[in-house]
Specification:
single chain, mainly alpha, Arc Repressor Mutant, subunit A, 2 domains, 9 helices
């Protein structure tokens, strides 16, 4: 076959592209309005398709929400090999470059505390997993003598998550809030040799 002849795009490729477009549109709508207020019609209108067409790919609004959450979790991640403190700071920088994703996270996380919300279990699992992961990392630092005396890893891990999310919420409301600097200050309180470099600063 002549390699210079462009190949026709098959139905699978077109279907995958349409699904991505729908998920991208849903991410924007849910970030702006929340899951409860953001309608399927809002999403369909954003990409110029009928609601019937949208339902062909995602029969339920809940299915679309789960696809949006999966996409959010699959976006940019810090490079491998960073120390735990540097990874925390690098993730904050990455979040700041994708304003819609922190906005989506904050809106849906807040909504998820209501009874029966379809994202409630997702966020409950996420927080439990992060607490375990961060506590394990801090225990490892304690074994290296890098965690300050008297600091309980599990409590410090819960505090780190709370401070990160709280700073991120403040940043969404006021771009002058520096999430990375706030996290660095917290790490300096609990670690003997916390990162001091100013090379990683939340973009504004």
């Amino acid at each position: 076959m002549d390699e210079d002849v462009p190949r026709k795009r098959g139905p699978y490729a077109r279907s995958a592209e349409r699904r991505r477009a729908i998920v991208d549109a849903a991410l924007e709508v849910f970030a702006a309005k929340g899951y409860l207020a953001g309608s399927l019609q809002d999403i369909a209108d954003r990409i110029g398709v009928s609601q019937t067409s949208l339902l062909h790919y995602f029969p339920r609004k809940r299915d679309l929400l789960l696809a949006v959450l999966d996409q959010r979790d699959a976006v940019d991640k810090p490079p491998a090999g960073l120390s735990f403190p540097d990874d925390v700071l690098a993730q904050a920088d990455l979040n700041a470059r994708h304003h819609g994703l922190p906005e989506l996270y904050t809106v849906l996380c807040g909504e998820s505390v209501t009874e029966g919300h379809p994202a409630r279990e997702h966020f409950a699992r996420r927080f439990a997993s992060l607490r375990d992961q961060y506590a394990d990392e801090l225990r490892g630092l304690a074994e290296e003598g890098r965690l300050r005396p008297g600091i309980e890893p599990s409590i410090a891990a819960t505090g780190l998550i709370a401070i990160r999310d709280g700073l991120q919420t403040q940043w969404l409301l006021d771009p002058d809030v520096d999430v990375t600097a706030g996290l660095r200050a917290y790490l300096a309180l609990i670690l003997v040799d916390a990162p001091e470099s100013e090379a990683s600063v939340t973009p504004r």
